[in-house]
Every structure is written in C-alpha cells, then in structure tokens.
Amino acid sequence: MTSSPFRSKAKAVLVLEDGTRFTGQAFGATGQTLGEIVFQTGMTGYQETLTDPSYAGQIVLMTAPHIGNTGVNAEDEESARIWVAGYVVRDPSRIVSNHRSEGTLDAQLEKDGVVGIAGVDTRAITRHIRSAGAMKAGVFSGADADLSDGTQLDLVREGRDMRGLNLSAEVSTQHPYEIAATGERVGRVAVLDLGVKKSTLTYLSERGFDVVVLPQNVSADHVRSLKPDALFYSNGPGDPAASDHHVELLRDVLRDGTPYFGICFGNQLLGRALGFGTYKLPFGHRGINQPVLDKSTGRVEITSQNHGFAVDAPIEGVHESSQGFGRVEVSHYGLNDNVVEGLQCLDIPAFSVQYHPEAAAGPHDANYLFDRFRDMVIRLKADASTAASTDATTGDNN
C-alpha cells in the first residue's frame, strides 16, 4: 500500500466555452490544456479510459467521485501512452491499495504531461454538459491559473472544434506491424489503425487471425497486396465526416468482396461508405453501462461506449445502399435515445457496431461479436473453396 500519492497542489481552474468556471487544485501536470470536455460514467477502468486513443483531443471528466485508488500498471494500458487532453476528477485517492499497482495515477499524469484538475463538483459539471452539450474547455493550473478570466476564455474559444476534425494521423501507428494468431488459425486480417486498442488486437489474435496492423494512410492497393481474408476498422477519435480517405478505401475493398467488421469509428465509416450521413451527438455516449438492443435476438446488451458522433439512419426497415452495396439494416440501437449502434449488410459480408465489444474494464456482453466475425470469415472461405472445387470438377468433365 502506497501512502499519500496525491498532494494538495497549486490552484487550478476549469473554464468552459460558455464562460462557466470551476476552481479546484492541480492534478497531474501543471500548465494549460485545451479540448472538448466530455463526461465518462464508468465506475471502474480509469486507466483504460486514459490510454484509449479515442479520447484524443478531449478533456475527460469522471463522474465516479473517487479516482486513483488502484493506481496504475503497464498491463492495463490500452496503448503506449495517455491520450486524453486533460482530466477532471472530484476526489483523487490519497492511498493506492492494489497489489497490481506499479505507481500512482497522479504521478503518471504528471510524467505524461497531462494537465488535470481535482476537487471540483463533477456532478454539477456533468449536469451542465447534459443541458448545454459537450463544448470546448480548458484547464489552467500553476502560473496559467493566474491568467485573467478573459484571457483564459479567449484561449478556450480559440481551441479546436471536434466538428470537421480528423485526428486519425495523430493516433495511428506510423509503421505496419504483425501479431501472430494464438488461436487455431483462421486467416489474416488487415486492421486499419484509427486509434486501435491493445485488447482489440488480442481478441482478434485469439480468434485465429494473423493480425496485420496498418497506418491510417495506406492505400486500397496496399491492402489488396496483403491478400487479407478480412478487413477491420478500429475505434478512433474525430469527426467521421472528415475521413473521406478512409471511406473511399473501405468502398474499394468492399467492392472486392472482402469481409469487413468495424467498431466505433469503424461503424460510422461503414455508414458513410454505404451512403448514410453522420451527425454530432449533444454530449455523446461514454461509459460502461450503455444498454443496446440486438434486433436479431431481442437481447439487451450492456455495453462500453465512447463516441460523440453517430450514423444517421432509420432504426427500422431494410434500406438500399445509395453506393451500390445492396440492402442494409440497423442491427442494434441504444435504448436510452434510439441512436444507431450497429449496421448489418444483407448482400455483402460486412457489419459493424458503435460500441466496444473489446471493453477491458467494462461488460463483456458483446464479446461474441469477435466470434461472429471469425465465423463469417470461415464460412466465406469454405464457400469459396467449394466453388473452386466445383469449377475444377466441371472443367475436368468438359
């Protein structure tokens, strides 16, 4: 047990785009940071949230009041670094009491240069965001806390807007790499890294896929040269309307007949590839307790989610893709607000979900989707093998 990892530090202030201000203490690094403020409702898994690339560019407010009690460790990281732009908590733990801990959250935030604030009324801030919507914000601590109110507000309002923002290049790998299958080998899957999480790659490998992780700027010809048995688009940050290259790449590969599975950002990009639009949610879905209905089974899944944009499609009925991909239907939708949470193509081998079936700190209700993906690839390969045998037999008879 480690004593007193969090010490009362310098003054800090959280400034929202609409001029609302909250005063607390510096938590993590001191200085200033800007981003879109969003709230995350998970009671556990703060380290997985911090290291999820989908949170790049965002100041994350934790609604759970007590954060940091289990410390941090390398095993639970979802990527190689912390991605959040800033961090807002109410009551940082004064002790770390977990046998797996390798350090304190406060020290890790400071080491990675993440500016945070503690000791603020996170319930009041959450209620404000739920009423006014997600907005630009800034955390100012140390010397930056002494900037004038007007200067701080100007800096916040001059910050980046998530609308129209493409962040894929900031979070994607710069070089391809491979992970060998650990389960009975099924084939090779090409993963477009738009902010992929470690657990996603682990689950694909365990399902028998040799995983080839690709930078977000690869071409369709590069993907084809790998001769993958399937294509996977990962989660990631930013506005899907600003990812035209990824949409065109997906359309090209879908026209080749390559099976596809996408999660989160990958769901939004499949929607765009099929001809649907996307839109920004008022305050997004972020947490590990989001109820989703699977229309095919009538089963309600409790899911982990992190998205501020959604696909604009009717949740009932079968629709024709305006891009020539045949029939498509919404397969899942959120029970809180009827937001599209999944797409199923009926004439091509492609499906996607908006939530995170790989959730490391959340529920595992949706983990079966990786099995569904594996089974789809196995079935299609078997069909292709049967067709090839039939063609060969027919040729011999002729």
> How would you classify the helix and strand content by structural class?
alpha/beta
What's the CATH topology name of the largest domain?
Answer: Rossmann fold
Oligomer: single chain
Percent in strands? 25-35%
What is the helix content?
A: 25-40%
CATH architecture of the largest domain: 3-Layer(aba) Sandwich
- Main sheet, how many strands, which sense, barrel? 11 strands, mixed
* Low-pLDDT sequence parts: 1-5
Helical segment tally? Answer: 10
Taking the alpha carbons of the first and last residues, their distance comes to 78 Å
Superfamily (CATH H level) name of the largest domain:
Class I glutamine amidotransferase (GATase) domain
Q: How many domain units?
A: 2
User: Briefly, what CATH class of the largest domain?
Assistant: Alpha Beta
| Principal-axis shape | elongated
Find the count of extended strands (DSSP E, 2+ residues): 22
Rg value: 22 Å
Mean pLDDT: 93
What does this structure look like?
Belongs to the CarA family. Pathway: Amino-acid biosynthesis; L-arginine biosynthesis; carbamoyl phosphate from bicarbonate: step 1/1; Pyrimidine metabolism; UMP biosynthesis via de novo pathway; (S)-dihydroorotate from bicarbonate: step 1/3. Mean pLDDT is 93; it is low at 1-5. Helix 8 (244-255) crosses helix 9. The radius of gyration is 22 Å and the shape is elongated. With 398 residues, the chain is of the alpha/beta class. The longest helix is centred in the last third of the chain and has 30 residues, at 368-397. Strands 12, 13, 14, 15, 16, 17, 18, 19, 20, 21 and 22 form an eleven-stranded mixed β-sheet that branches. The protein has a seven-stranded mixed barrel with strand order 2-3-10-7-5-4-11. Helices cover 26% and strands 32% of the residues.
